[in-house]
Amino acid sequence: MNAPPATTATKGTRTAARVAGAVKVYGAGDTAVRALDGIDVTFPAGRFTAIMGPSGSGKSTLMHCAAGLDTLTSGAAFIGDTELGTLDDRRLTLLRRDRIGFVFQAFNLVPTLTVAENITLPMDLAGRGRGRRGDGRGEGRGDGRRDGSSGEWIDALVEVVGLRDRLHHRPAELSGGQQQRVAVARAFAGRPDVVFADEPTGNLDSRSGEEVLNLLGRAVRRMDRTVVMVTHDPVAAAHADEVVFLADGRLVDRMESPTADRVLDRLKAFDGTFDSKGAPS
Ligand SMILES: Nc1ncnc2c1ncn2[C@@H]1O[C@H](COP(=O)(O)OP(=O)(O)OP(=O)(O)O)[C@@H](O)[C@H]1O
């Protein structure tokens, strides 16, 4: 079962995800925090978008609300044409499983499963792959392959992430960079409408981080995928097609074809000064 197209509009103008009038207030009364203060933003399909901004500007909150991991106080969040606020818990869970991929700073792999089994886990849970025994050892071929078009897709993914010779290893036998590459492959395995990545290079050295970012870029440009990435790092943001900048819960700027230097300059224009990671110095 393939995910439905992001929208019915033509390629190039399709919207993978968007929020409209997004407001998120944590707490109430004197201690209320307005983490999102009326944001309208569109994440186009087939594009790599980075979300940047000072600490506390609302980046993670925006990502979580756009991805249906958290709910907006007011406004609306859409994946394709589907408004998340109209879904009950069950449908929202299914939408997240079938139409969204996630990559987090902590790799979140299942330690008892092999690389191949981790990559196909979302599809197995969705009943799109072969069955899995309760002991965590897959009944499939265990080589990360699937039959038909999903087999070809997984095969292409394994090639792109360069893990062919590690498919039977467990996560503990891999470096951090390799583990994150598995997490990236898993996020794309079900051909979701959009992959949300929250500081995907936060736990990696710069060389492994670069590999993971190149991978995200290749998935977008060669495999027509959509990525939305939260990052503090101007070097990471420079891998995106476009950067959106938040400050105080508002969208304050967008930058096409970013470079690390231009992103850093833009960040410096916010209150305070920022070191090369965009964190307050
Ligand atoms: N669960 C929560 N309860 C209360 N306040 C929260 C909660 N989550 C976030 N906030 C507040 O909302 C604001 C935005 O937080 P958010 O984590 O989205 O920012 P961020 O830009 O991702 O920050 P960072 O770069 O430091 O991760 C901050 O003021 C934060 O303290």
Protein described:
The protein is of the alpha/beta class and about 280 residues long. The protein has one domain (about 15-270): P-loop containing nucleotide triphosphate hydrolases (Rossmann fold, 3-Layer(aba) Sandwich). Helices cover about 30% and strands about 25% of the residues. The strands form two sheets. It has a six-stranded mixed beta sheet with strand order 6-7-8-3-9-10, sandwiched between helices. A four-stranded antiparallel beta sheet has the order 2-1-4-5, with helices on one face. Strand 1 and strand 2 form a beta hairpin. Residues about 1-10, about 130-145 and about 275-280 have low confidence and may be disordered. The chain binds adenosine-5'-triphosphate. The site of adenosine-5'-triphosphate has 13 residues, from strand 2 and helix 1. One of its GO terms (molecular function) is ATP hydrolysis activity. Keywords: ATP-binding, Nucleotide-binding, Transport.
CATH architecture: 3-Layer(aba) Sandwich
Strand order of the largest sheet: 6-7-8-3-9-10
Q: Which CATH top level class fits?
A: Alpha Beta
Name given to the CATH homologous superfamily: P-loop containing nucleotide triphosphate hydrolases
Low-confidence stretches: 1-11, 130-147, 273-281
SS content category: alpha/beta
Record field, number of beta strands: 10
> How much helicity do the residues have?
25-40%
Domain ABC transporter: 17-273
Keywords: ATP-binding, Nucleotide-binding, Transport
GO molecular function: ATP binding; ATP hydrolysis activity; transmembrane transporter activity
Pfam family, one: ABC_tran
